[in-house]
Amino acid sequence: MKHTITAALASSAPREDRMLRRDFLKTAMATAVLTATLPVQAKKTLAMSNAHFADVNGQHLFYSVHGTGKPLILLHGGINPDSFGSNLAELAKGRQVIAPHLQAHGRTPDTDRPLRSETMGDDVAALIGHLNLGKTDVMGYSLGSGVALQTAIHHPDVVDRLVLVSAAMRQDGFYPEGVAAFKQLEAKAVTLGPGVKASPLGQAYPDVDWTNLFRKVGDLTKRPFDLSADVAKLQARTLLVFADADAIRPEHMMEFWKALAGGQRDAGIDGSLRPANELAILPNTTHYTLPVQSMLSEIVERFLGAALKAVG
User: Fold this and answer.
1) DSSP labels for 100-137?
2) What is the strand order of the sheet 51-56 is part of?
3) Domain-located, residue 261
4) Residue 202 falls inside a structural domain
5) Reduced to 3 states, what is the DSSP secondary structure of residue 301?
6) Residue 223: what are its φ and ψ, rounded to 5°?
7) d(C-alpha 277, C-alpha 238), whole Å
8) Which candidate, 89, 97, 105, places its Cα nearest to that of 139?
């Protein structure tokens, strides 16, 4: 897949376009990094009896169910509905993991509706209601983190604990070259789509219109947003997780953390002054390897598991 997309983007274009090519690869190439064994995994998923659909908000939303216990809604990143790799199974060892495919991704068909984090957040809240889960934990990565955040902002009654993996609360939370790439992604969809269609990811999900998906993701990610005020009002206890070499600027990570009342003071010798929310930065990790990093499931389970112990 890497060579397919690289060849598709290579040209005698000016230097500026060649620089942007590198950033498009960062957006699209994560699918190759995260899905080395995807064909085998996908066949198992398609054959499993845990595959379900829910008709909510005009969407025929696919979701799979893994494990038992307190539910966790797990929201994948952009393009790749299997972003978390083996971490899904790890998280399902101690709880019930419900993994939807967001609009136009994987086995959830697209509709005429544009891709927006707000409306996909409404879908997640509707799914929670459809399954009668009550107040449940929600975790999202990258695109999924934006959806998880919007779910918690607009539907606080259905979100218990919130885990945001590589999330930004403003568009400029990404590095400038990333923002520039987002603004060009829609135009590059016709080049990127066929490359992914020919990849293992494309073979696993043959019904996806990859060119259309890249267009719609590009239309979403090019739009400026600022959720700072909403983040400061979040009711859900929240864990932020970043990579030490993330697509998110480190300054923005700290802004996000401070918006959640973190980084305000020394927690005290007994830790009694520490904030309710938590922050983790995983070493030797990038935006693209973060969701499959084994430390991620350990950190998340510790955060979510504390709530289970408190209830018990």
Assistant:
1) EPPTTSTTS---SSPP-HHHHHHHHHHHHHHTT--SEE
2) 51-56, 59-66, 96-100, 71-75, 136-141, 159-165, 237-245, 278-286
3) yes
4) no
5) helix
6) -85, 125
7) 5
8) 97
- Residue 44's domain spans which residues? 21-175+223-311
Q: Please indicate, yes or no, if residue 110 is contained in any of the structural domains.
A: yes
241 by DSSP, 3-state: which? strand
C-alpha 192 chain-centroid distance: 20
**Sequence-ordered list of residues with C-beta below 8 angstroms from that of 3, at least 6 positions apart, any chain:** none
Round to whole Å and give the CA distance between 311 and 69. Answer: 13
Identify which of 158, 101, 102 has the alpha carbon closest to the alpha carbon of residue 129. 158
- For 95-125, the pLDDT digits (tens) are 999 999 999 999 999 999 999 999 999 999 9
CA distance 149 to 140: 8
- Tokens 């990811």 locate to 201
pLDDT > 80? residue 70: yes
CATH number of the structural domain spanning residue 29? 3.40.50.1820
- The pTM score is 0.86
Element containing residue 67 per DSSP (H, E): none
Which residues fall within 8 angstroms of residue 11, CB to CB, at 6 or more apart? Answer: 17
How many domains is the chain built from?
1
**73 neighbors 136 (Cβ within 8 angstroms):** yes
